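Here is an idea for our session: we take a single protein and study its fold together. Which protein we use is up to you, so please pick one and set it down. Once you have written the record down, we can walk along the chain together:
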Amino acid sequence: MQSELECLICLLNQALNTVILATEDINLQREVINRTADWIRQADLVQTPAAISTEVYRIVSELTGVDDPYKEIKEQTNQEALHMLPDLKKMINESADQLDTALHLAVAGNIIDLGIGHNFDLKKDVISILKIPFAIRSVHDFKKELYPGQKLLYLGDNSGEIVFDRLLIELILDHGVDVTFVVKSGPIINDALMQDAVTTGLTDIVPVIESGSDDIGINFKRASKEFINTFITSDFILAKGHGNFGSCDERSENLYFLLKAKCPVVARKLGVKTGDIVFKH
């Protein structure tokens, strides 16, 4: 997926949202904005939105010396989501269509996107999304994949969100599918790291591997050999969120994308409206 002009405007918002967390020094904040503007002038729109956005967070870290500006917020969203876990499990157990409910909950977790400044109320938004039909719903295809011996690679997105992923993964495991979960190898926005997988209990139920880099989405040029090998040998892949969609949508592997279309660029690419939820094969 290539970037569009609107992505360049979004870069400034991402820079501002992040540097405000990293430092209160207005001079440093201004320097980050100036450096981001320099990056915008040279950014090649042939790159994915994930690729051009990743550079913004490196600018913030370089100028402020803060490697993980979202660390405290990530811990908070993990705990908030874990607190909801018993009620979420009850929703699935009492549902007439457990897979559909688990998919809705997993995509509800995708609202926890701090880089683009998306405001959310976790409890309220989860309930709202449960009532919304998927604009694209590839559940029929997905069910065909769920049988013993199949290997699923699950590309995680944000901290907090991975608690919701855990519920879907537990349901998939009940079908005898082997699941491997992927986190980032270093801090980038509020994307999940290995520590988040430990905190939320994912490491207790499935193997968790790192992507090999600290890029938004998947940077296949920097990804680890372990990740690449697992990616190309998996029977099917479930990719969460904008970053994974934008960096994997032109791949030839058997991919399913689960996300909320939170910006018009992604919505147009998917052929849906901004705000729609999507489960696309």
